[in-house]
Specification:
The chain has about 120 residues and is an alpha+beta fold. The protein contains two helices and eight strands.
Amino acid sequence: MREIISTKQAPQAIGPYSQAIKASGFIFVSGQVAIDPATQQIITGDVAAQSDRVLRNLTAILEAAGSNLGKVVKSTVFLKNMSDFAAMNEVYGKYFNSAPPARSTVEVARLPKDVLVEIDVIALE
């Protein structure tokens, strides 16, 4: 059984995907970028500002699914430039300050809408 999760408190999907899917006790959240849900526009700012917006979007989706960041078991961070790792990591650490999830971080050639960072997560219900 699978349930589609959707909230107006996070950016609407910009393609044929769901914000998240709840299945078998897990919540699989699609990669989030720094889109302001109120305007559906990319925010201005550096990787720290974008990381903060991304993590707020993830929080909203998880809350809509009945979960929270504390239940995240795995995250994947996609960076446009690995030189931004320290700035992203500082913001990330503020959201995952206790028992952080397993994580992979990779540099990619390009991200949707030319953002600097994208993050997806898997969480428990």
